[in-house]
Write a structure and sequence with these properties.
Blueprint (H helix, E strand, L loop, with lengths): L6 H16 L1 E5 L2 E8 H10 L9 E10 H4 L8 E4 L2 E11 L2 E10 L1
Length: 109
């Protein structure tokens, strides 16, 4: 028994369907974008990578997942995005099957 379609297309469709189910409209730099913001996943990522910055006292953040086409660009690491009126620094950014995963960090020193 084999898969009768393109596996990559099936994965992309499943990811986009989950985004539509769990996502909501998020204001990113003044633009409404369908996205999921996941604080728990961000904390898991941060726990795997200990901060090398000894001056950093507190880092809060979230993992934002959205379509590249909806956002319109792939943000650069270290750039600043305003999400829901709050400034965030862009951490790691990954792109897979048209979806961006963007680590957003709010730092206090």
């Amino acid at each position: 028994m084999g898969f009768g379609g393109d596996f990559s297309s099936a994965v992309k469709k499943a990811d986009l369907t989950l985004l539509e189910i769990f996502g909501g409209e998020v204001d990113i730099d003044g633009r409404p974008v369908l996205a999921v913001m996941d604080d728990d996943q961000y904390r898991e990522y941060r726990a795997k990578r200990q901060s090398d910055n000894v001056d950093e006292i507190f880092t809060a953040g979230t993992l934002l997942t959205c379509r590249l086409d909806d956002l319109g660009f792939r943000p650069d690491r270290g750039s600043l995005l305003t999400v829901e009126g709050k400034p965030f620094f862009v951490g790691n950014v990954t792109l897979g099957e048209g979806l961006l995963e963007i680590e957003l960090e709010a730092r206090e020193v």
